[in-house]
Amino acid sequence: MRRKTALFLVVISLLPSSFCFGGEWYPVLIHTHTTFSDGGKIAAALATIIRQSLGSLRADGKCAWVNCDHFDGMARDFAGYVKGIEATGIPGQFIAMPCLELGSKLRPEANTVADANILAIGVLPANFTTLVDCYSVSTGDLPLEEKFDNQQRLISEILGLEMLPVAAHPTQMLSGYNVARVDNRFNMQKGYKGLCGVETMNTLGPGQDDECVNWYLYLVSLNLMVFVTAGSDYHGTVASTIPDVLLGSIGRITWVYADEFSAQAILQAIAEGKTYAGNAGACFGNIFADGGQNPGFKVVGVDDPTIIAQPWVAGRDVNIIVYRNGTEVTRQRYKGDESALCCYPLNGGDEFKSGWTDSDMTPGTINRYVIRVVSTTKPGTQTQLITSPITLRLRLPGETASFFDAIRESDLVAMDTAVSVDPSLVNARDPRDIYNFKLSCSKPLALSVACALSSSQVVGWLLDHGADPDCRLGAGEAGPLMEVAKLGDVDKARVLLGHGANVNIRTDGNTPLVWAISNNHPELARFLIDAGADVNLPGDGGIRPLARARTHNMADIEKLLLAKGAN
What we know:
single chain, 567 residues, alpha+beta, TIM Barrel, 2 domains, 15-stranded mixed beta sheet, 5-stranded antiparallel beta sheet, 17 helices, globular
């Protein structure tokens, strides 16, 4: 059953998933041009447009811009380019990253020379000479028939700069002034080893849109680690008579799932494949697999191979397609609404079920899934959403339960063995309901079980192996530090905070400090206060720590709270 909403997505893009894994989705505009090359707007003007457009997609307005001016159009003012783009950023609000679009030549057909462009995304090196060498890839030692087929060399040069090579508009390859034959159109067909990403949606027409997606799926079928971007290619040209598809579009947005809002975190998330491409205002309210995992190259073990997706799109006809290892395995069709964005959840044809389950998945195997949403609108049939791969491994029967038993028994040897096979177990949920009497939630996460039932050594082991210190099952449930606060275990609290846990985390409406006081644990309360706990942050019902301390006759804690400015 679809749900309808207004066009503006301030709330939609922030819908929480059923599980919390620390990161958030940020809208990023990738591949634009300014007057530093052939764009029609100066950097400051384009940055303002992007902030106004993308900032409306999140309640806090946070968004990012990855500009990719043509390197050969900079008149060699490289230092000015970097400074000019970065100067438009606003700390904590808007990230502006100067990147590049590099050109390559190839001969797709007899007696022709075509352009094949590649984006270089990442931190630009300070060495300008290195960039010149990268752009001007030498072909002097190549045979005549290969002098123009140097895409592979260019990709290798970009990787050498520790940047990410992305195939730019892979179907817009022109032979002179004519579009190349379909079978010759993909500009990476003679070399794509090391290619990190593929632009989608940035095409010359609906048919090419399919070609681009099919090529991306072909790369996925080869088990290549390629992410997708939306490919804005916005030039800011004022020639309104030219169709938007040729000018580029602010509406082609790459959503990035980053651990924090910083340039480094966003680039890292892109490199890990934690992206999806959205067009025409479409976005996902929810997208994850069993266990709350998001798209990415990292293999995630699951006990239930269910893919969950909640796309918001507009269109007369809406198709949600799931691909496994590059091949379509299921398609769900909706009669859509072109007048407004609506939610069309993937449920495998059963409106009472959440998500689609791959019943053909074999335990122990690894599959890579891509979700694509296609709708029919006035411009024609087009891809509105497409994800980077979701990489899943179906765990063997009893594998997860055995790992949780090892946690409960503090069996580090067994835990080591289990995680060597499936590292994602450290953030897994126990499929059984055997800990309900000990924890304040059902089917708890591994770290919460360790905090409630095991030793501080096991807690530290899980954190050292990648467990999220602030991970919890969802709003209204406890989480690791809250379980520790309930028990009053200072050693475990010290381990959690030492691994970056948020001392002021709020889960069920309370904070660790409020819980420590409410459960009469003065030593832990003192430790949390010394560790920076907010002494005025209220708990459930708006009751502050000082009032809790007075209620529980904790005179020493009351004095400490007052000394720290409690009111």
